[in-house]
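Fold Annotation — chain and its backbone

Fields — amino acid sequence, C-alpha cells

___
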Amino acid sequence: MVKFFHHSLLIIFCYLLTGCIGLGSYNGDSLKGVGDDPPMLSLNPTPVNILVIGGTSGVGLEIVKLSTKRGHQVTAVARRPERMPYSHPSLTLLKADITDQLAMMSVISDHEVIVSAVGIAPTSKKVTVFSEGMKNVLAAMKKNTVSRLITVSAVGAGDSHGHGGFIFDKLLNSTLILGSDITDKTRQEVLVQASETDWTIVRPGFLTDDKPTKQYRVLSNLQGIEVGAISRADVAHFILGSIEKELYVKQAVLLSN
C-alpha cells in the first residue's frame, strides 16, 4: 500500500512538474540562446561496439533502438532481458545485474563504449544501486582497458542541484520520493568524475515519451537555468551524437527542451 501511494504521488507530481519546471532566468523559448545546439549525427558513422546497461526500457531502450538503426553493434544488458520489446540483427541481449561485480567483468569485455542507463522505481528505501553499480562498471572497464563511458544521471545530482524548478527541487527532490535516488546519483557522479575513463555525465530534465525534436539545449553553464522536459528519444540522440563525434568528454551536461 505504501509503495502504491508513493507511485501515485509521483505521478501526480510529474504532471505538475511538466507545467511548473522551467521558471528561472532561462526557460522555455529563452533557452534557445543558451548552451549548445544538439550534436549532429555522423553522415556515415563508423560502426561502434556499444554496451548499454539498462537497455530494455526508458532512455536505455531508446539508445539501443537508435544505435542499431544507425549500424552500430549493440549489447543490451538487463536483469530481465526477456522484457526487451525490440529486436534487431545487430542487437545482443545479456542477463546481468550492475551490482554483480563478476557479471560486469564479463559483459564489459570486447566493447568500445559503455553506456549506463540504469533506472529504478521510486522508493522510500535507501538507494545505492547507482553508486555500487558504478564501482563495478569502473573496475571492469579498467581491467578490460575500455575508456569511453557515458552515464545517465539526473537533474538535481551533483552541481545541478537547485536547477530543476520549484516542484522538482522543493517537493520531489527533497522528499522520500526521489531524494535518495538523487543522492545516490550524486555519489555515482563523484565516482565517474574521479575515474580515468573518458566520461560524459548526462543529466536530463523531466523525461517524457514524446518523439525526438532534435531541438533541445545542451547546458554546461547552469547559472540562471531551470530545466524543462525532454524526451527519452532526444536524450538518446544526444548520447549517440556524443559517441559518434567524441563530444563532451570529461564534462557533465544538462539536457532540456
Remarks:
- Confidence is low (pLDDT under 50) at residues 11-26.
- The CA atoms of residues 49 and 112 lie 5 Å apart.
- The first strand starts at residue 49 and ends at 53.
